[in-house]
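Record type: monomer structure entry
Structure origin: computed from sequence
Chain ID: A
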Amino acid sequence: MHCQSACIICFSLSGLLQGRDCVRLAVFLATYSGTYQVVVRLLEIARKTRDGFNAATAAGLAGLSINLVVKSDRQSILLFTLARGLGALYNTLTKRGYLKQLPFGSLVLYSICHWVLCTALVFKPHLLPKSYYRALLKYSESYDDHTVAAMFRQAAFVPCDEILHRGISCWRHTVCTARRIFARFAKFYSVLYGLSVLMTPKRILRRPLKTVTSLAHNVLISTLFFTMDASVFMGSLCVLRKTSGRSPLPMHIMTACSTLASLALLVERSSRRPELTMFMLHHTLYVILSWLSERRVFEQGAEILKRLTEVLMFCVSMMPIMHAFEHERESNSSAINRMLSFVV
């Protein structure tokens, strides 16, 4: 089942899919697909061979069509493809022996991204995409903007049992929150995976017991992963903050809690870890770009240079993705390959 991967990709592009100019988005996809197919065929005729060079070159030239997309959507597409392009490039180089496979590489990158996003959530939420920030607060089952500001950003220390969980201990609050998160995502993944099963009726008829068992297993694993990640982070943050008695929250406490919570990735299936990491990397790149803009790294006079850089980065990012799609599909996630099969 790869429906969860598709869900993550849709959520990653949620800001894009809610854009006002859907016509320009459709024109971009059609132009990219048409340009890619034409250039690939011309290169095959000219070079009399079909290899990865043709696919990568065609992807780079077709990437110029990103100019058809409005500015806000262009940034969303760029960050999405940049994260997946880096993943495809790394996987391809390791498969060909140019790089060594890093042990627990996905976990290390996931931990770094986890720390960046959690730090932005607690200290500088304006660096996060608004929809992503609202989703994090909603799925935490405990936090809202006022609570996060009062607990972590104000100079005066306010005990968590006065603002977050009145009358109960930090540990009991963590257990109660974990139960609510587990219940929410058990329903969510049951529907998500259930729909993916219903879309393959032949599989149900051929192996009904194995299909149901696999469905239950995948729902349980994915629900446990998210529950452990969220509850461990919030619970340890609550306890260590109360123990230190300091405000604003010390950075070493944030680092320790984020690192501990990111270990929940080991609960998830190994085939799912790279896509989850790319999902986190996508939003981490957004935070970094927002931070650079806040520091005025991109001046107004350099707007044209910034746009050219975005176009160039998109073209370069699509090259390893399309190379892997045409010749080494294992370097892409299955959801990315199916999405490209539909578009290209």
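Annotation 1: Confidence is low (pLDDT under 50) at residues 1-19.
Annotation 2: The chain has 16 helices and no strands.
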